[in-house]
């Protein structure tokens, strides 16, 4: 050590590691903070306050049916999926309207025939809510007037209760994604009931049919092609493949079609396509 030099202040030899000094650990070297059990819930609450759903949040489903056994089976089916959860049940029309207003589910599985208020009127009231959920109407009957009335009331899907469980789960996911869904059997019924031809006197048998054709006439040829495919139940991906365009282009088509025709959603486009004669029996 050089004369006059203080101990501990000399330079290290090149390549020699710094000596470890016990008891002088920097604060940042302390144990890292680990997430606590309640952190996930607080994060979800923050998303809720900001009006955004948490990332990968499950699809929130409400079930309406006057039969307890059917409500229970729907709950078991939905709760068995990782990406969805039942947030409530109702046994009648007024009950599901109140439940939807209180819990704001993403999707409602709606029976048609219930006491107090039928599923069609309940659907109409629920879809009138500010942040309305998507409604899938379920029925044992499948009568033509039920299909048409349900879609006119704002339903995004229509399934027979005899449909396989996988179809019901698919319906929840499809309508939650913003698409309309009709089972193949229901689609055939809808085509048969909504396809119209002019009467013998040259006038339309459907009141307002001329107006529907005027609304469709506003579409460009490419939009019209996409419109017809939507009416046949094709998804955006399938339409993109059929028209050889990108998925983003199809989304643009759909947005423009909804605006130009004054339609609320894809389900209304289905009704409009059949009422205007864009899609008929031969093409269904």
Question: Which labels suit this protein?
Answer:
Rossmann fold, 6 strands, 12 helices, globular, alpha/beta, 284 residues
Protein model, in words:
With 284 residues, this protein is of the alpha/beta class. It folds into two domains: 58-193, Response regulator (Rossmann fold, 3-Layer(aba) Sandwich), CATH 3.40.50; 199-283, Response regulator (Rossmann fold), CATH 3.40.50.2300. 45% of the residues lie in helices and 11% in strands. The protein has a six-stranded parallel sheet, sandwiched between helices. Helix 5 links the parallel strand 4 (134-139) and strand 5. The longest helix is centred in the C-terminal third of the chain and has 15 residues, at 247-261.
Helix % is 40-55%
Radius of gyration: 29 Å
Strand content: 5-15%
**Strand sequence of the main sheet, in spatial order?**
2-1-3-4-5-6
CATH superfamily of the largest domain: Response regulator
Write the element-wise H/E pattern from the N-terminal end onward.
Answer: HEHEHEHEHEHEHHHHHH
Return the average pLDDT rounded to an integer: 76
Structural class of the secondary elements?
Answer: alpha/beta
Count of domains? 2
Number of helices: 12
CATH uppermost class of the largest domain: Alpha Beta
Assign the CATH architecture of the largest domain.
3-Layer(aba) Sandwich
Briefly note the CATH topology name of the largest domain: Rossmann fold
Biggest β-sheet, characterized? 6 strands, parallel
For the secondary structure, the number of strands is: 6
Distance between the termini: 97 Å
- Principal-axis shape equals globular
- The parts where pLDDT drops under 50 for at least 5 residues are 23-53, 196-208
Protein name: DNA-binding response regulator
Keywords: DNA-binding, Phosphoprotein, Transcription, Transcription regulation
GO biological process, one term: regulation of DNA-templated transcription
GO molecular function: DNA binding
